[in-house]
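can u pls check wat happens w/ nicotinamide-adenine-dinucleotide
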Amino acid sequence: MRIAIIGAGYVGLTSAAVYAKLGHTVFAVRKDAEKVEMLKRGEVPFYEPGLPELVKDGVQSGRLIPTTSYAEAVPNAEVIFICVGTPPLSSGEADLSQVFAAAREVAENWGEGYKVIADKSTVPVGTAQKVRKVIEEVLVARPQNRSGLATSQFDVASCPEFLREGSAVHDTLNPDRVVIGTDSERARAVLSKVHEDLPGERVITDIRTAEMIKYASNAFLATKISFINEIANVCDEVGANVDEVARGMGLDPRIGSAFLKAGIGYGGACFPKDTKALHSIAFLHDYDFKLLKAVIEVNKAQRRHFLRKVRQMLAPLAGKKIGILGLAFKNNTDDVRESAALDIASWLIKEGAQVVAYDPQAAENAKAVIKAELSPNQSSALDSVFITCPTAEEAARDADALLVLTEWKEFCDLPWSDLRSMMNQAIVFDGRNLLDSKKMRELGFTYVSVGRP
Ligand SMILES: NC(=O)c1ccc[n+]([C@@H]2O[C@H](COP(=O)([O-])OP(=O)(O)OC[C@H]3O[C@@H](n4cnc5c(N)ncnc54)[C@H](O)[C@@H]3O)[C@@H](O)[C@H]2O)c1
């Protein structure tokens, strides 16, 4: 099948490369010519394990075609997946301007023949119908469509994406479920064919339900995280161990063990914006989604709660040198969108500390965000208040404390004994409960984590 992917970021590029691997011919549209040239060389402009190899294979096979041109991608495509960003507006609602702009450009470059336009971007209920309207308006205005052909030559659909950054290739090749939401038999058949060689349950449903499945899934996962974080805070008060509590809970199959890891809360491009967007959707329909509001508030408070622990032990923070391990919002990615680590780093800097940070992939992205967060004075002195370094050892050297803020596996295997001897004070705050508290204490660290005595 011929497929066009609009928006070749984490979701779009991974999907494009996987569809090409399945044997489809896939045009991957990005606007930035320089990044498209990278893709044509098989290089990926962000860090995602396994993706460069898959992109290279796809490009070499001729089945994956990166392009800046809608005119090249759209006219012959039978299926068009919209995979552009849906960032939050200040109200919390999803900003759909990229989705509608993409739909308009698709319509302006239509060509001939039947097409399915499917949203893979996470969008509020009702968006696919709005995409239909945008496309119809353009098609109806075309001179060759005076006969009113426009509405029968395409269908819209919702195919929400569930991949996780850091394991995007694996998740896309091995989905738990493929959700196909459409009100048309013809579109259902086309989308089923696109995905026929992928494993996983099929959830074939109407458009609005498919759109809701994505938000409900992310809201539920965020709820699990905020729930276990609140349990952790109570564990801190009563002297219980949240890791053991989570294990004891998770063995009950009705609960499950996934997403019961206490820490400094969720971040990234999805959970923060999707929880806010679902809350806004409910609000706009005059429903007060109290539970979700609490989930969002708990998540915001959790990073502050962690900072308080640091402040309590190190106060005053002014003049202290704090080493940070991990800047990405989670491990195995260079994505720092809504990263708890970056909030904590900039709060420390604002209180007068110097931050020296190591992250295996995210340092460059982090620097740009931190610069924007700081006051003009601090920002102009960025290189002296926020230093990124190429090794964990350098972050530890002369530090008054080390903060573990991203769960990179490699941090477990650091030569912690050597690190201790380099530090000014042997204090570790583990915001991800990554390290073994008993071992850290045996090594002579003062070790503070989340909900573990
Ligand atoms: N990142 C994830 O883990 C994930 C998982 C599931 C769903 N999603 C959802 O998928 C969507 C995309 O997320 P992402 O993380 O891939 O975002 P991203 O920012 O990595 O990629 C979006 C891409 O779209 C491009 N773009 C914007 N407008 C365009 C246009 N008119 N034409 C062509 N390209 C255009 C941008 O330049 C960017 O490269 C969002 O709605 C997100 O919520 C993301």
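The two ends are 57 Å apart (CA to CA).
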